[in-house]
């Protein structure tokens, strides 16, 4: 049993004690990035590292949500509690979003051992919400054995997912023309487990062969990446998937990969800086920014140099000294 | 200058009971999305306990229930269940075909607004935005 | 313009031969050749058509009703011979409540009956598995053969056409067949239609009726079509539905195109089973929505009829005339009705009904003006039937076949709608057929876009809706009938009746029949519908039957998110 210290924020204490409402609320607070958020994140630090964070990604139509749903059922059968962060894209114009991923996971709605939270990507390029990593931490602290990150399969989310998840599952479906192409474009590099879902469909074995061939080219891999077949709708191959995830997770634990954690923080920091810089340029009407803007407009200053000058202005150091 | 993230209103758009006509709920979901809100959208036929669980996990400000048949008759029960789950701050609206005398019952049970066929985009969006603010003000836990 | 007697007697041209053929078909259907006159005393012919020198394209594009392109109608006499069937959908409360009401409605002029079950039945659950507040509020609670028997007490079921709103796996039809058996009515005398049998439409646009998964429903559908052709030969096992799609927001042309694509899918599935299209297509029927866009609706029906007649010949090699007939039921659109100034809805329904009648429908349901407020109550339902009677007897809409045929506007519009409908069909073909296009969400997405488009037109005022975005009134004086909710005590009685029914049946027989049905569903070769009839006869409830089938064939759920 985890001990909550008396001076920590009430919400964090309730969260650590496993109160569902507190977890739900804490996620909102962290998403708002208020001063309270940092207190909560600090308070939960000693309680992190218990959960396995599993990332699921793949192109649209591969059956991600259905596979996650089946995987969750398997985890529940094994007695594990689960937290799910389901990420859907926000409209780049209005910022609004329809979050419907959990429809495919409706069978778990009334199961207290499963907590699902839908997040909007809110303009994060890679398809992961900026705060997804922190939300995963909150679920970890709230005693979830497995935290699942389900991300928009744009083919761009791989980097971010790689920094957050302990185990990366990449899903492909047979018969989608661009599918293998999308995987080639980079997801393959980050996959710990590859899954060909909809294995009952005719082109499944061909897709598997293609993936295996591509993996063969990646000679540097320390550990061979398993290529599994699932039929999520009929729950075929899901136990094998759960086993494969566990194998990778155990390996990670043994390595206790500190540098990965630092890498993740660095990545999050970079993201936050670019967001802050963007807000500064968009909203600031300071003379300095206006001068630089006009210089760029008149082609007196290149974009890269302009950015360096602005960063120098914000951060108070010479951005040329790197 | 503020760097704080402005979080859009979160709204659960759903249907309870037995009917499955979802044209209305889909259109309303699209309206709210286009107004910059985050809409959690579900299948029809949600059990009341499921609506409570969804509202809790997703930490929504407003719940919109679409009722084209008679499913609104269950809404008073839902209001009670939300209250019991400590979600009394969440504002509930009902849209669809609701006879006037039953509308009065719903309002008495704590429903904030009942929308009828013919309610326009602006009217709905404006009301939901305002109710979301009210709900946030009423929160007791932060 | 031609008149029937003037030119038909002799002659050599093709037009005249065709006219003669039509006339003999007409006379076979309309025995007493009573002269019809208008109020000015002028004689009204049943059909008017152009001389050959005036319009040479007539035979290929329009032709005479009952044959050829079928644009003008599927029977030689159309409404001048036999008017459309007045079919009002009702369903309320307990079986005995339905029975009382249907008897009244039959007395007031309805010529066929339809049963709407309670939404709990649509969901495939029995009375004891539902929030009691909702029981019987939208339709009749029919869970067992006993419930069906009470619903149809004193109704001569062998002599009246029965529409069952009975989605796959057709448990109500099984109940009806057992009631017939118990009453000694041979199955060959049972006529009517399995409405809501078009499972594809449920996955497209109406998430209310489906009870099994897409693939499971496909299996049972074909089993039922095959079994019924053998055992209940005068029953229409399939009604292909465009209504849901249009109600969900599809444009009229889109709805027609998608419906025809569904029908193509069903026909191809039947043929893959080895069934003969010249036979099974005789029993295909259609069901459409009629919006208030008057001429567009008329043109939609005319174009759809023409496409179907040509399409079944070209695609399936059908030569049998009866298999080319595009028989359809239509319902006035509830989406067009408004809550504001509700009596205006009576006018809307009348205009919608006219569009359907002039479009050549075979069967019509008119909405009650209170449909936007509640499930239809008795008073407004009577007005709805009277509307049909007024159009039929006072307005003279039945005097002439396809009276809008030959109008420059209507013919041009029919051609344009035809092109648009064909474009939709081609689009679906490109997706690999309707089943696939629904499975991958293509159709749902297209309809969603149309729905939003229409709503925007209303929001911006581009589409005027009287009382909603124009001609509003400050204080609305509306007299509405009191809402009709079933008595909670009665509903408790229905739950008790179900319990008593289950207590009194041979439980061993039920268990065996359900287990046999499970085996049938698992096997590739056995007929599931035959097993459903056996289980119903043994006393299984619809909830029990559907639970087993869901277990084996999958549960129906929406396929696409907003």
TrEMBL record, chain A:
Entry-linked Gene3D superfamilies: P-loop containing nucleotide triphosphate hydrolases
Alphabetic keyword roster: Chaperone, GTP-binding, Hydrolase, Nucleotide-binding
Keyword match Nucleotide-binding: yes
UniProt keyword GTP-binding, yes or no: yes
Span of domain AAA+ ATPase: 50-200
UniProt xrefs under Pfam families: MeaB
SMART domains, alphabetized: AAA
Family annotation (InterPro entries): AAA+_ATPase (IPR003593), GTPase/Isobutyryl-CoA_mutase (IPR052040), GTPase_ArgK (IPR005129), P-loop_NTPase (IPR027417)
SUPFAM superfamilies: P-loop containing nucleoside triphosphate hydrolases
Family per similarity comment: Belongs to the SIMIBI class G3E GTPase family. ArgK/MeaB subfamily.
Protein's recorded name: Methylmalonyl Co-A mutase-associated GTPase MeaB
UniProtKB/TrEMBL annotation, chain B:
Domain B12-binding positions: 8-139
SUPFAM superfamilies: Cobalamin (vitamin B12)-binding domain
Keyword Ligase: no
Gene3D superfamilies from the UniProt entry: Cobalamin-binding domain
The entry's keywords: Cobalamin, Cobalt, Isomerase, Metal-binding
Required cofactor names: adenosylcob(III)alamin
Record-given protein name: Cobalamin-dependent protein
UniProtKB/TrEMBL annotation, chain C:
Compositional bias of kind Basic and acidic residues: 1-23
SUPFAM superfamilies in the cross-refs: Cobalamin (vitamin B12)-dependent enzymes
Residue segments, region Disordered: 1-26
Residue ranges annotated for the Methylmalonyl-CoA mutase alpha/beta chain catalytic domain, each copy included: 38-554
Keyword terms of this UniProt record: Isomerase
InterPro entries for the chain: Cbl-dep_enz_cat, MeMalonylCoA_mutase_a/b_cat, MMCoA_mutase_a_cat
Family matches, as Pfam families: MM_CoA_mutase (PF01642)
Residues in the signal sequence: none
Gene3D superfamilies per record: Methylmalonyl-CoA mutase
PANTHER family: METHYLMALONYL-COA MUTASE, LARGE SUBUNIT, METHYLMALONYL-COA MUTASE, MITOCHONDRIAL-RELATED
Name of the protein: Acyl-CoA mutase large subunit family protein
